[in-house]
Batch of 4 targets.
Target 1
Amino acid sequence: MKECLMCKAPLRNEIRLSEIIRATPLINDPICQGCSNDFLDLADIPTCLGCGRKQTEGMSQPCRDCSRWQQSYPFNFSNCALYEYNQQMKDFMKQYKFNGDYYLRKVFSGQIHRQLKKCPDVIVPIPVGTDTMLTRGFNQVTGLLELVNYSNILKVKAKRKAVRQSEKNRRQRIELIQPFELIQSQKYLIENQSILLVDDVYTTGTTIRHAASLLYHAGATSVRGLTLAR
Ligand SMILES: [Zn+2]
Ligand SMILES: [Zn+2]
């Protein structure tokens, strides 16, 4: 019998209510209903139109973080997130990324494939640096995209310039450093194209917005983001 990829409980053939309501074809789920219930799906609840976070009481639209980003990075960018970065997602990421359980990509790769198979945009994963590749052995983002047609266009700059000390606070300094560069031979893939950037987690938005900025400068018509979690 197949086991839940997360808790190892035997998987019964469960038909989910959502599948009955949406009349979607039955999908062999990689995780059990219990583990699945602990992820908070952001698809059916109000979220920030800028970053995809769950809308909470009193939150502006877009949220304050996104308003700030619009001032410092005045280009069109919005992110859609599939799940909230709650405890269950944090546990998943810890196991997947930091413990390096590569098979855990399968918890979401099927769903991401179904979501993106009709996406007309050029799909660009956020890359990981050489150090991460050496220690982790894989890029967690391209793992999630294993069934999707994506284009490797970005790479992490080999030598990060030392952060210049200044009066600015740490976060402001970090935001000034562009961590990525284009793979020059792939540049033609983005000129006049709509791009969907994919990352695992949207935390401060710094990573994905740096990547978006670079793609706009290289001639992309539009850049949007999709992250597994926010
Ligand atoms: Zn489970
Ligand atoms: Zn936001």
Target 2
Amino acid sequence: MISDKKVCIIGGGAVGSVLAYFLHRGGVTEIPVYYATRESISEVEKRGGIVVLDKRSGLEYVVPVIPRHYSQPSDECLFVLNAVKAPDVPLTLDLVSRIITENGVLLMLQNGFGSLELAEERFPEVKVACGVVYFAAERLSRARVVYHGGDSVVAGCRKKPCEELRSLVVVFKAGGLDFRVVDNIDHYRWLKLAVNAVINPLTAITRSKNSIVLEEEGVKLAELIIGEVCEAAKKHGYELDPARLLKHVLRIAEVSRDNYSSMVQDILAGRRTEIDYINGFIARELGDRGLVNYTLTKIVKLLEKTSKRSS
Ligand SMILES: NC(=O)c1ccc[n+]([C@@H]2O[C@H](COP(=O)([O-])OP(=O)(O)OC[C@H]3O[C@@H](n4cnc5c(N)ncnc54)[C@H](OP(=O)(O)O)[C@@H]3O)[C@@H](O)[C@H]2O)c1
């Protein structure tokens, strides 16, 4: 069993809060959560923790975390769960180096490609794992999060064996989260990349729910995007079947048809998106052969500029 204060979370937003919720339900009572801003810390203190609305039951839970500022590391953590957005990852790496214990495991939870690679490069001595998140959550305010459902995370290390992850399995399972350890995490990353590469930009550009992808034009664009994802995956030694992948992506769009993707939410709120880590990554991998993903990346970058001006 994981003893207290051994699991620390960096980033108390949508994903970090839901992970804290499952950890707490699994019996962990002291969970340090690191924030970028003092405002988030005082809001969490005011409410006595993070308020998580579990949409499955309709019930609200207060998760009594220990809020901390990223500039003041004060824990020794066997597990560091890094749940900030991809563009913020570089700013968290010093913090990681100061709180992780010698045999600790760093779990990177960002969508897209680049964050895991950055952490692996910066910490060659540390067990760096990746977690692919299959739940949906949304931050309503600094200390309030709605958990929409989906209850699994698939995790694994690429560079070193990290058996330690198995103790997270026990605690998360006790809390109701299906946390699984796999030895081919990259396979899951590519599948998730395909889903994000289709749903995120198409919903952001059209400012629509995920169901927009199911329109005739959406499906055609999905096919083109996925063709390039498969080509990029091939460069990395992964043979993906474009037809099966398209089916997979459309199924996800169907089951989440009423959701707004994180990218459309970011655009509407005037925030920076993770496009550089999703379609931008595919475009960079393929150069001239990645024009569809290149174009989508540039359109979303323009949208970021216009939405920032108007917000
Ligand atoms: N939301 C989902 O349903 C979902 C699902 C799957 C995957 N993901 C992925 O999970 C990642 C996190 O997304 P999210 O939606 O949870 O983000 P989010 O709600 O925007 O939360 C980000 C959190 O990171 C904190 N933060 C930023 N910079 C920091 C720093 N330097 N040190 C410490 N904390 C810092 C922020 O602190 P402040 O509160 O102080 O600003 C905030 O609490 C993304 O890569 C996303 O693609 C999300």
Target 3
Amino acid sequence: MHVIETAGLTKRYPRVTALDALDLAVGDGITGLVGANGAGKSTLIKVLLGLVPATHGTARVLGHDVATDGAAVRSLVGYMPEHDCLPPDVSASDLVVHMGQMSGLPYAAARERAADVLRHVGLAEERYRPIGGYSTGMKQRAKLAQALVHDPRLVLLDEPTNGLDPAARDDMLALVRRIGTDFGIAVLVSSHLLGELERVSDHVVVLDGGRLLRSSATTDFLHATGSLLVEVQGPAGSDRRLGQALVDAGLPARPAEGHLVEVPVAGDDAARDAVRDRIRDTVVDLGLGLVRLQERHHRIEDVFRDGGAGRVDQSA
Ligand SMILES: Nc1ncnc2c1ncn2[C@@H]1O[C@H](COP(=O)(O)OP(=O)(O)OP(=O)(O)O)[C@@H](O)[C@H]1O
Ligand SMILES: [Mg+2]
């Protein structure tokens, strides 16, 4: 069963179509939801929670129809909202205990779970202080803790790295990864920073203007766009000779920085191996020494910028 399934899901506001006939299937594990500002990420998450009604189409979360069964969805799903929504005069401990009780936990159990999740997100020491005095990083952690307190099957995290510096961003991404791997909770995590999701996601969904641009495994994403980098040893100009010879052999070789030759490759492992063999043979034929032949993994960001994400690959 898919964790999230949508069919023709559409959300229209008076001036804009926030979601446009979205057909989506999300499985277990960690799924990155990528898109620029206004792409429809937050709208999708709110529709999935049953907080915002769709204009057309259907969405099911953990088997429940979000239009008719929103309460059941929200009892099984944790939600970390995008914007700062925490009461400043309450401690993280009180907030998370309260959210646990709202989800149906008895007081004692809510206290115990709150202490656990706050420790897990790294707010053990500060949890009795009012949230108003927290840094942005601490607030994001408190928001994450309240999403986890009722032991959900799925969490929807809306831009958890928003406003964080690089170190805090890495910590947050590591936490997100652990929610998926250590606790087996399915995760849908959104970001407009395409590069950061490739590190934590098993699967990536790209939205653009409310439409699905692409949905595929992160490894396919990287593989489909990787290049091979070649460095050779020989007289001056050897890299140019190699580049020309590769082009003559039908490979799309181009110069790269530092006298390297870059050969973009698409396709599966067998196709890549064949290209590697041809590069090796060409180097030998030219009487050059092969110093290195390695993969250059493009980041999802590059894919997006190059327009590669324009292909819709529904291998969900
Ligand atoms: N309540 C609303 N009323 C009218 N338009 C809305 C409303 N909520 C969202 N929109 C519009 O729908 C589109 C999608 O917005 P959404 O917030 O889902 O994007 P997003 O991908 O989350 O963007 P961001 O990265 O800025 O958070 C935008 O054009 C936005 O202006
Ligand atoms: Mg948003």
Target 4
Amino acid sequence: MRLAVTGATGFVGGAVCRAATAAGWAVTAFGRRATADGRDLGGAAYRSWDIGAAKLADPPEVDAVVHCAASATDTGVAAEVWRTNLLGTHHVLVSFPDCRIVHVSSASVYDPFRPTVRAKEHEAPVSRYLNAYAAAKAAAERLVLAVGDHPVVLRPHAVYGTGDTTLLPRLLENVRAGRLLVPGNGRVLVSMTAVTALARACLLAAAGPAAGVFNIADSEPVPIDWALRGLLASAGVSVRPAYVPAALLAPVARVFPKGRLNRYVISQFAVERTLDITAAVDRLGYRPGPTVFPARS
Ligand SMILES: NC(=O)c1ccc[n+]([C@@H]2O[C@H](COP(=O)([O-])OP(=O)(O)OC[C@H]3O[C@@H](n4cnc5c(N)ncnc54)[C@H](OP(=O)(O)O)[C@@H]3O)[C@@H](O)[C@H]2O)c1
């Protein structure tokens, strides 16, 4: 199997490269930066490509592309987020017109104004979002499904594991005097996704034949307080989550729309965010494990 991976210098793309090379696949890894450490890519060949700038002039011949590259931030400059996440996805599609596209999307495409309760794939995209990241991920999904050749869209939520660039660093950044302020009450359920399981799902999707949209998460949701304590403990930090009712934080979020406790963050932590993964299990052959900390390697 010949595979191209975008976003290979990132958390998810690196895990996909390592899983694919371990399976004996021939992998071309793409990132934006000029160079990358081959060990992080499982020894895959590396090429630099800014997907927002243009299509690839000389794409390698591959059977499938796992498209992980994205501006993965809820507070980024909107123009840059749209450039990478939508225009960049267009450039990926036109660079590889004749092969299977596995688009790594996000559970952020579900309605941020309502709890996500064992959501099924048809419940998203919706017409309203709280930030450019979610809106651009939704637009990119629509594009991939409209023009891709047997495309697969994967929607993970709260990805954790070795090399995490997003969730754990963000939590650690927000620790003050041994406390982490968290919107809500800590009792709501959340679907977490081990990065190794997501990488396996990407390979299953790349190998085919199933096409369509699939939620990807660990086998069962967990209470968010349990997840936060586990994540922080696995990083070796002693931190106590301190819960603040969402109603008290809402006025602050209105004044500071890009602050640490913005409306998107409140929407992610204060209400249930769980995914139904039946479609991935039944049609992709995805076999998730439970959420454990530290994450399985
Ligand atoms: N982490 C999560 O919890 C989570 C949850 C749901 C969905 N996702 C999705 O999973 C995918 C991967 O996320 P991640 O956590 O691995 O993010 P990440 O660690 O920040 O990696 C982002 C990757 O995208 C590349 N990239 C960014 N802008 C680019 C551009 N203009 N041209 C080419 N490459 C560019 C980066 O390359 P350089 O580093 O070389 O600049 C990097 O390889 C994203 O699509 C994200 O939406 C992640």
